[in-house]
Predict the structure.
Amino acid sequence: MKHIARKRFGQNFLTDDGVLHQIIRGIGPGKDDVMVEIGPGLAAMTNLLLQAMPHMHVVELDRDLVARLKKSYPAERLTVHEGDALKFDFLSIPVPEGKKLRVVGNLPYNISSPLLFHLATISEHVLDQHFMLQKEVVERMVAEPGSKVYGRLSVMLQWRYHMELLFVVPPEAFDPPPKVDSAIVRMIPRKDVPACDVAALEEVVTKAFTQRRKVIRNCLSGMFTEEELLQAGADPQARPETISLEVYVALANLWSQKTPKS
């Protein structure tokens, strides 16, 4: 029986074989990998991944698809976790000593940013992530200072990951076709994450980009003096989208010193 894609779950199923194989080549699955796929849908990618490995995990919210997956694959080949990936504890997946999780998925556009931030909290336990996302979101993720799309998402994710846009996927590769282009992004957790309090960085970056057309001195007024901005390496007359990750980290560390935890 044909599964009808559900709008409330943001379902767009990838059906293009050429694109699917290109994604699998990009992931490069190995037989000993601990792989978890978010939103396997009709299992197009799951099928190909299981050709390279004896077992994997999937996280699926749609009950009908959960039942379909359990019926299609024996438990020793596929462990199906029913639930919302935004609330799922990825550290509950058993990982052998010395191994890390590999996470893949065609992420629903409506939850992509919060899901990326949810996964960022466990980045030290992850080997890599390969996701299909809205092209515009991937461009924001990998944007460099000076780009019009460089912003909060760029800074917060680049603090934890090395990221690369691998290739673009057109709407006609899906059923039903979305109204926008998609893209595959590779995310590799950094081993050299700059020391910084994540809450402080979030606070500084959020305030900076709330009024991105203003200069950084005005955006962060009330948090830093002009002298403090200079101390952190920021030109007070620069706009938020021209400030590097390193300077935002320095500002966050300065903010942590100014607002000691009680």
